[in-house]
Amino acid sequence: MTQFAPPENYFALDTTTVLDYCRQRPELRAMFPANDTLEAVEVGDGNLNLIFKVWANEDHNRTVVIKQALPYVRLVGESWPLPTDRARIEAQALAIHERLVPQHTPHQYFFDPEMCLSAMQNLNQHLIMRKGLTQGIRYPHFAEHIGLFMARTLGNTSDLVLDYRAKKEEVARFINPELCKISEDLVFTEPYRPTERNLFHEELRPQVESIYADERLRVQVAGLKEKFMTQAQCLIHGDLHTGSIMVNQTDTYVIDPEFAFYGPMGFDIGAVIGNLFLSYASHEVRTKDPDQRAEFRQYLTNTIIDVWQVFKREFQPIWQQVDTVNMPQGYQENYMLRLLQDAAGFAACKMMRRVIGLAGVEDIRGIEDVHERAIAGSLALNMAQALIMNRRDSFDISDIVAYATDQTPTYPWK
Ligand code: SR1
Ligand code: MG
After folding, report:
1. Domains of the chain
2. How far is CA 263 from the centre of its chain?
3. Which of 86, 186, 275 gets mutated to test ligand 1 (max ligand atoms within 8 A of its CB)?
4. Does ligand 1 have an atom closer than 6 angstroms to the CB of 269?
5. 47 CB less than 6 Å from ligand 1?
6. What confidence tier does 2 reach under pLDDT thresholds 50, 70, 90?
7. Residue 63 · residue 40 · CB < 8 Å
8. Would you say 257 and 90 are in contact if contact means Cβ atoms under 8 Å apart?
């Protein structure tokens, strides 16, 4: 396997060495004056990196987050090497996001290329959105915030806004082959064939095997994979699931753009929609009371509809900048329709990979009872298949919601 050596002076921090590191950084001197007592804890629960929280004198309002890339996939270990250059990609994407949507991007104090780490604002009043959704918490401003975030970050990094040369230079700066390969494999390849890395529950085997055998489905997935690999449309976040979003009742922050590259816009929009649908599927068993379940699901589907409507509305300023001789109204409408249909297809792939593939999500895999887990997983797979197969017949976001929510679980087998 290819080895990706980190920079010469790189070493992986721990909860002791991170304290010395923070004391030595001039950018943190104002936050951590010389005589302060620093403490740290490692809080990374993701698949790839080390995440430390460092604070001073027991004052958690003076906390910084240090995110350091490990030279391998943390979820698997050193047998799966991964370039630490992803820390640079993340830092540069965060800088662009902070410029375009500062209200939805954690502030980055600095990036250290030798140590492959960034120091960032601690979002201590916020929760990972996926955790909130599993508990049935609603976020009333989320659709407005994420719709704006996506319209600004995707639209302003596309050919619709960037100068021809700047765009190509940006494509080169954000070449991210190994992280893209993870998505190519885990999102578009492995869920559709037997592989050692797939990790679904045995209860779901008959349904998974029918997916492996479904050539019509694989034709659709192959088309989406091609789009992912070839359409350098704009700078996408690349991993915009609800675990990459931190929320509370008033704010929304997007974190973790280490998978960023120039790819298709619909991949980010689909990630948001697909993860809201995964939550919808999980509440088939997570919320026992039928009225409460219906209400929370209504919130989720309204949110999906609003995300798309806000995205479209906030994309209008982008269309106002284009040359309408070359890009007349009809082209603009067709562009948005293609985006909607792409988003439905990518949402579906994102859902199937989280049920069948290596890296699952708490919404489904966190359901303790195996039968309930299989019910939710089965429903998610059926929703995803309906989305991917019917996306070309979807002309409005309400069509997409209708196709998905018409589904029922196949498990338990009749
Ligand atoms: C091996 S990395 C698995 C997953 O973690 C990240 O969050 C991405 O979603 C990736 O596919
Ligand atoms: Mg991540």
Report:
1. 17-121 (3.30.200.20), 127-405 (3.90.1200.10)
2. 14
3. 186
4. no
5. yes
6. low
7. no
8. yes
